[in-house]
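My hope is that you will study the record closing this message with an eye to the fold:
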Amino acid sequence: MEYLPQDLIDEIVLRLPVKCLIRFSFVSKLWKAVIHSKDFIRKHRQRFNLNHLNDFALIRHHVESDPHDHFYSVTFSGDDTTLEEERLKHPLYSLEESDRLGLQSGIVALCNGLILLHVRSKKYDLGLFLWNPMISKHKIIPTPFKWARGQFSNRMYGLGYHSAEDDLKVLVLTEDYDNRSNSLFGQRNLTMDLKVYSVALNRWKRIEKLPPSNLRIYVNHQSNMVSMNDSRVAWLMRDNDQLDLYMVVTFDLVKEEYQFFRVPILIRGPGVVKLMAFGGFLCFLRCYTGVCINVWFTKDCDSCWSLEPVVLNCKPLFFDGERFLLNQLNHDGNDKLTWYNIKTQKHDYGTEIRRHTRSNRCTETTLCVGDLSLLLDADPDGRRSYFGHVF
């Protein structure tokens, strides 16, 4: 090791995926110092975000016979046609098994390989925690709101990266209304609130400027914020004055400014709408009953949408400007990842994912990028503590 110059060591280690870096950090004190440095983590993130083939699929299974959610990962390697799921250690499993609280964890946001989970039990909303599944570490996010009797809330969650501060941000947009309101014509008092949490500073900040009062949170279990590549997050809001009009709202984490532009169509009739962000593209999805999904896309989050929608029959996981990576379910119950070329309108190839369990009531698949964030100061998964309580 003494014969290798430092810049060559840095270049070698930068090319390694996250799983290898975790192992190689034990090679020597020098390698550990390199891998754990903030500058290295930033450079490694930038390099690997440019190549989505180094990504992995995070799969959440909910088994009917088990009250808990189970997470698995599938790492892509070459042109393998069949991949095996790898069971991930859930941060709360020790608590669930020992106290039988029946916790459920829903994925509400992703950014740079980190996952924001919303945790709740059968009776209580327990809040948020940030999880890096590739290195088995998590961080509890203190709850920024309190429940009040007679008050109901719609909430949207987001996760974004502040490039200037090299800091991860958690966003919560809340729309509260009070059923006890005695306002004229029976209208309910509506209040909106946007709070941003700094992971580096470990504190919440209220954003004084809010979206226009005519815009309302789009209530849907898939309607959370998406992270953009330029320190922005985006989400959907509905125009309360024109109910078939939806707007894309972007929030700049650096300037703390909003931008607004319309979705490509007016929304009438049944169906679900959703935003997704892939590789610099923002995609607007209109999901109809059954398996029909229409997708419009725009580059760099401007108002120029693609003229005609791409029609898909399953959820897209990634888009590179020419191909969608799709998650399909085979007749035998296995997932299959397939590239769909929008120019040729053909499926290029497929990779089958063999499941570990067959009795799933619900399966959620998300494409992630391996990242070293939270490597230094986060709690290791399996620690038996939760929101200030030790069990």
User: Anything to note?
Assistant: Confidence is low (pLDDT under 50) at residues 384-391. The two ends are 44 Å apart (CA to CA).
